[in-house]
Amino acid sequence: MPAQIDFKELHWLLDIVQCLDVGVVVLDRQYRIEVWNSFMENHSGFGPDRVHGKNLFELFPEIDRNWFRRKMDTVLQLGTRAFSLWEQRPYLIRFENYRPITGEEDFMYQNLTLLPLAAAGGQVERVCLVITDMTEVARLKRRLAENGTS
Length: 150
Known about the structure:
Beta-Lactamase; globular
């Protein structure tokens, strides 16, 4: 018997997703956006109503399509997580650095996690992207390297 959805519980779970200080995006198999949290809205300037159902590559042409498709295809086929660290690839989506006082960097360095999201039947139908701002870590690491202490 399938579990009943508790809409009160669903409401606070959605609140958590909106309040996280990481980007949360859910894509279907055609790279269409289904979930877009407030972190993504704040850094992209695009509200959920503007991006819902839109293709990620059309909204963000700077994304390396071949690289990202390989990553996402692996997650969809194997049902396992995939990662990309800022040291390997500085960002998925080029967001401006939003720290004007310490903002020595032109853009936000990002770690990316791709999580498989299975449907009720067990088949992975969607992928959740978690984008973590690593700009401060990148700035400090660069500063240490410039000072010869890395």
